[in-house]
Amino acid sequence: MNSNVLQEVDERSNLAGTNKFELLLFRLGEENTSGKRELFGINVFKVREALVMPQVTVMPGAPRHVLGVANIRGQIIPVIDLPGVVGCTPKSGLNILIVTEYERSVQGFAVEEVEEIVRLEWSKVLSAEANAVGGMVTSIARLEDEQSTRLALVLDVEKVLRDVLPSRVHEVKDTHGIGPALGLKPGAVILAADDSFVARTQIEKALQALQAPYIMTKTGKEALDKLQTLATEARAEGKTVQDKVQLILTDLEMPEMDGFTLTRQIKQDERFKNIPVVIHSSLSGSANEDHARSVGADAYVAKFVADELAQTIRKAIAAHA
Question: Would 249 disulfide with which of 58, 95, 192, 216, CB 3.0-4.6 Å?
Answer without folding.
Answer: 192
